[in-house]
Design brief:
By secondary structure, the protein is mostly helical. The strands form two sheets. Strands 1-2 form a two-stranded parallel ribbon. The chain has a two-stranded antiparallel sheet with strand order 3-4. A hairpin with a 2-residue loop joins strand 3 and strand 4. Helix 2 packs parallel to helix 4, helix 3 packs antiparallel against helix 4 and helix 15 runs parallel beside helix 18. The termini are far apart. 49% of the residues are buried.
Length: 514
Amino acid sequence: MNSAGDRSAPGAAEIPWRVQRRRSAELNIAGLALMVTGVGLVVSALVGLTSSSRDVVELALCGSAVGTLGLFLRWQFELPERITPRASLRTAALALASMIAASTVTYLVTGAITDLEGAVMESTSGFTTTALTVLTDPEVESRGILFWRASSQWIGGFAALATIIAVLPFLGVSGPADAQTRLPTGVSHLTSGHVKRLLGRYLALYAGLTAIGAVLFLLAGMGPFDALSYAFTTISTGGFANHGGSFGFFDSSLVEWMGVAGMFLGGLSLAVVWSVLRGQTSRILGAREFWVYCALISGATALIAVLQRPGDGFLDTVRISAFTATSAVSSTGHWVADWSQWQPGMQMMLVVLIGVGAMSGSMGGGFRIVRGMALFSYLWRELQTQLHPRLVRVVRVGKEVVPESLLQRVLGYQVLYLGTAAVGFVALAAAGTDVVTALSGSISALATYGPALGDLGVGQPVTVIGADAVVVVGLLMFAGRIELYPLLDGVVSLVSWPVKRIRAMRPRAAGSGR
């Protein structure tokens, strides 16, 4: 006699409706990204309740739908035990694209942005932490939408950091790193316990720095909502503002100095911050990249103060100079003065600093200081070798010797970075922008900074350059935030697909001829 006990006995047939989970790193991580996005939207809806009911229902519904979709993907797909390099590239790109898509739908549903192109651009700027916006006056938006803009940059900042930790070392292209913080690079890298612990540690640090930034802004005189929003967009090096004048809106020297401190923290490597918290001062003193970071900011501050003199007095000049220099080096995009109207020498210096970018292991963008240091050391070695052919000299970053294999990857990344910037320049010029706008805009967008020269000057909405140019800028921001390689992989796959199809058809054609 069959019974319930017989059906549950060992060896009985499996339950027919049980869902078999499939393995997919791309869809699993995309699900996680959508879950985080959904939580951010729901929190934004709750924040919106503090001022008015406008957009609250829409934000809550969008957040619930996005979070549910993410939960479904996480339930349906699990991480495979072995993940190939190309799969890791697709994982990073798809996670960022899924968050941008969810935010785009949210802007359209709420009516904050009514056209598709504008909603995509605003979402891309948010998650790539770029200070370009389609909004001419952010103050007219509801508090929920403003908080979501800030939240998208905060989420995007940590997503970029996670890409650096979990994907780039896996590919061996992240550049020189401290020997004590170097990551494993095997096929199980993404699922290793070390990476999970490191991500958890850095998330706690990221949240802690954000809390510190919010407290600093509160003490400086910002209201609670502005303090939290600006902390989100400053520590993440995003640059979105709740007001049209960015930090200049507050007309407060103390607020601006707190902004300098927040942007400086945002451009710091979290490994350096972790070392400070653990009292490892010897590692800080030996962190050459940290001192170069400080030197770039202080040197640019001095040059701006002496040559440009943007303020009315000494203290005013130093403050504006320090704010502008820190914003450029950390690739944040906040501003207190329209540097796009300064003398050409200062403009070009700032564009170069924006292209170089912040420290590795930070939320900032750009080429990264540590890669620039490795290239400078390499060029010095080559010069010495030309003068002394028998000289044997290694390439160093600080005290660390850079292996030749890693150096080749850094050189390759430099070519890729400059090549992408060049393609962006040509594309922007072809889209109708002038040469100054195209060159500076390509560098700024690729470095995820935002403002540039010409039509993309400080405080200008990105829509002034036209729809075609906006698409180019969006692609550059996306490429810069995922460190180029995932987008390159997609382009190569797209180009090579027809070739593979033609090659696959040749044997069939030959067989039919016989």
